[in-house]
Amino acid sequence: MLVPVVAPAQQQALASWIALDAPVGLERRTTVPLIPALTRATGGSWQGDALGNLTLRKGSGLPRRVVACAIDRAGFAVTHITSTGMLRLHRVGNVAHPLWDQAHEGQQLEILTERGAVPAVSAIANGHFAQQHRKDSLVVTADDLWVDVGASSPADVAALGIRLLDPVQRRLDAFRYGDRTAGAQAGLRAGCAALVAAATGAVTTGETMFVISVQSAFGWPGVGGAVARSGFAPTEITLLANGRAERQQRWVRAGQFAAVNVGTFRAMRADSVRIVSPAVRHAGTLMESIGDADATWLLEAAAAAAGVSTPSSAAWVPVATRHRSSAALDAPMPGDPFATLTRSLAQLADLPGVPTHEWRVREAILAQLPAWARDRAVVDSVGNIIVSAGPARDTVVFMAHMDEVAYHVAAIVRDGTVSLRERGGVINSAWEGQPAVLHFPKAATGAPDTLMGVFVPRDSARVKNPRALTAWFGLDSAALVARGVRVGLGVTSPKVSVRLFGSRFTGRSMDDRAGSTALLMAVRTINPASLNHAVLFVWSVQEEGGLVGAQVVAASHGASTTRIYSIDTFVSSNTPLESPHFAFAPLGNGPVLRAIENGSISPPTVRAQVQRAAAAAGIPLQIGLTQGGTDGTTFTFFGAPNTGLSWPGRYSHTPAEVLDLRDLQRLARLIAAVAQQRPEK
Questions:
Q1: Which residues 6+ apart lie within 8 Å of 445 measured at CB?
Q2: Among 119, 291, 423, 667, whose Cα sits 20 to 30 Å from the Cα of 17?
Q3: By the 8 A CB rule, do 573 and 649 touch?
Q4: DSSP structure string for 156-217
Q5: Averaged over 283-311, what is the pLDDT?
Q6: Residue 547: beta bridge partners?
Q7: d(CA 386, CA 133)
């Protein structure tokens, strides 16, 4: 038996095999390029067939064994391209978990084209429009999914290289938490990692055919075809199958194991096969995870089935995979007019800013202020940043917020399950069954410290939204407490901002990192000596769930403020899931004067002044009404009218938020223009 001490090679191998792109039906794109590396690692000659199955034979004589894993993964295919450039999907391959489709709604996706992976998001109802969607109560299916690549027409879609039937999958790297490795079909992919590790050893008796097979989602026909065409007559066959709640090794006959079609038995001329399934958590979800001890057990089982002496833990073989990087790290395209804005926005957006824990965002904003503003910046008692400029009269306030919708730790159960409390208008269905990140307070060194985990998915569901959400970080309560976890710490999910087609951009917490970025850009262009009135530039805390930071500023400055401009999202109905009868502000048509919202209304005189500023600066300006509230509402109780200066955004309060960089660039110019206008009486 292997001593269950995990070497880095095992961790790397598991993560790499789980992360491989191998959509069912197109596995050959992935498997054939693996042949040179697998041949070097195992000392044998791997062969590929027309479908993408890979085989290796070692040893000679009897018994003749087949040990097979499956490399494919169920997913979706593009089945329709709409006149507005949206994609519709249909699922390809069988899935067992009722939340598989829903786990792709409101998330970053990617279309695997012949030219490479194209990033996208799956549309979801705006979080601010919950009232309009109160009847949308059932679990989402593949037929409900709309995919947004940032296109506006079929021609845009074609320019990205996307064609009908291209596969679509979640844009997500495999990851580690506790002693586990997580990702879609982690147990099945761990089987391939174990098979290759076993194949590095010598077959002690008889002959073994190792098979990395395709199309297991259709009943394992890949292994059937590989064996049938090989001329190899096996005396025993072992399939390293999908993970289950408990480890399993058993022999089954045709018809006794639904995942293996009876046709596969006929093709292999087999009366029975041995099924080996590792124990996993959250089987059949995107967060399926396998523990190190179970991966070790799987290697032992694979080696025994193959007639190989159990290899050492160093035998695990990592494979090359893609890494999905942030737009903050992308090399700018030649002539891209949005390169600087993209980098600035992505750097800010990818930072966590849980309400009451906004310190990383605050430090980044302070560091990016121009020298004059940094010298005048004040951080108040609750953490707001306030920059004052101009003579002390006719005060105008511009305010964006630094926080984002997220969760706080509410309680810790003995087994380590963490109960969560919502902060802001989160949509629980968009977080359930996704990666989780717990954020510790700022360390003495100033370095951020986090703990990876998962938002626990329900085992079964008919309704879309869970009543409550929990997270698990691979540790029991004692270990969590020893690690420093306590009630009130923030929990989010990982963030990786990305450019879509043209000038479209997606990233979680565009509300309100986009506003914070626009305010920063405006401040950089303003000469404070040119102002003829007082201007306060404010980046607030705890907007989500209470407007806490804004209340503090309003208490100090509200009575002397002539007007406030809230720099925040205009939640737009310019999506395929919303009615255009209100809040219709197309992306790319310019910033939006947010004249009416749930808690305030902008006076016509203020609107007119903003419209004049926009016209004078040559900035296209939209105007509208939307749902939700902004920081400026707190100033209205002191007699200062609140007006929103916004950008139109899709899929608010979700991981799929989308904006157009043209709108954000123009919004920064609009803020600067309005700031330099003296308020009219």
A1: none
A2: 119
A3: no
A4: HHHHTT--TT-EEEE----EEETTEEESTTHHHHHHHHHHHHHHTS-B-SSEEEEEEES-GG
A5: 94
A6: none
A7: 38
Calpha distance 419→401 (Å, rounded): 26
Structure tokens at 24: 């069912």
The pLDDT score that the predictor gives to residue 681 is: 64
Q: How far apart are CA 664 and CA 632, in angstroms?
A: 20
Helix (H) or strand (E) holding 513: helix 510-525
- Range list of H helices, 577-660: 604-617, 633-636
CB-facing half-sphere around the CA of 99: CA atoms within 13 A: 27
> Residue 423 — φ and ψ, nearest 5°?
-120, 105
Question: How many alpha carbons fall within 13 Å on the CB side of residue 86?
Answer: 15
pTM for this structure?
A: 0.93
Write the burial class of residue 323 (CB in 10 Å: 0-12 exposed, 13-18 middle, 19+ buried).
exposed
In this predicted model, what pLDDT tens digit does every residue of 591-614 receive, in sequence order?
Answer: 999 999 988 999 999 999 999 999
Distance in angstroms between the alpha carbons of the first and the last residue of the chain: 84
User: How far apart (Å, rounded) are the C-alpha atoms in residues 94 and 218?
Assistant: 7
Output the six-digit token pair for 612: 């004049």
Strand spans (E) along 93-241: 108-113, 116-122, 146-148, 167-170, 175-177, 180-182, 207-213, 236-240
* pLDDT computed for residue 95 by the predictor: 87
User: Tokens 């804004």 map to which residue?
Assistant: 550
Contact predicate 561/635, CB 8 Å: yes
DSSP 3-state of 262: helix
Neighbouring residues of 287: CB distance < 8 A, sequence distance ≥ 6:
182, 281, 433, 434, 435, 454, 455, 457
* b/e code 358-392 from CB counts within 10 Å (16+ = b): bbbbbebbeebbeebbeeebeeeebbbbbbbbbee
Q: Which two tokens stand for residue 447?
A: 């370095």
> To the nearest 10°, the Cα dihedral for 265, 270, 276, 277?
10
Rounded Cα distance between 175 and 213, Å, is: 24
Q: Each residue of 658-672: pLDDT tens digit? A: 999 999 999 999 999
Asked if residue 398 lies in contact with residue 672, where contact means CB atoms within 8 angstroms, the answer is no
Q: What tokens were used for 320? A: 């090359």
* AA letter at 351: L
The answer to whether 673 touches 614, Cβ cutoff 8 Å, is yes
Q: In angstroms, rounded to a whole number, what is the distance separating the alpha carbons of residues 142 and 122? A: 11
Contact 267, 225 (CB under 8 A): yes
In 3-state terms the chain splits into helix, strand, coil percentages (rounded to 5) of 30, 25, 45
Q: What is the DSSP code (8-state) at residue 217?
A: G
What CA–CA distance (Å, rounded) separates 75 from 100? Answer: 9
Q: How many CB atoms lie within 10 A of CB 213?
A: 31
Residues in contact with 238: Cβ distance below 8 Å, sequence separation at least 6, in sequence order:
65, 66, 67, 68, 273, 274, 275, 276, 302, 305, 306
CA distance 396 to 388: 10
Taking the CA atoms of the chain, what radius of gyration do you get in angstroms? 28
Dist. CA 478–CA 482, nearest whole Å: 6
Helices (H), 47-130: none
SS3 456: coil
Q: Which of 18, 22, 16 is nearest to 37 (CA)?
A: 16
Tokens 């806490």 sit on residue = 548
Tell me how far apart the alpha carbons of residues 299 and 293 are, in angstroms, rounded to a whole number: 10
Q: What percent of the chain has pLDDT over 70?
A: 99
pLDDT digit string, tens, across residues 112-123? 999 999 999 999
**Do residues 666 and 588 lie in contact, with contact meaning Cβ atoms separated by under 8 Å?**
no
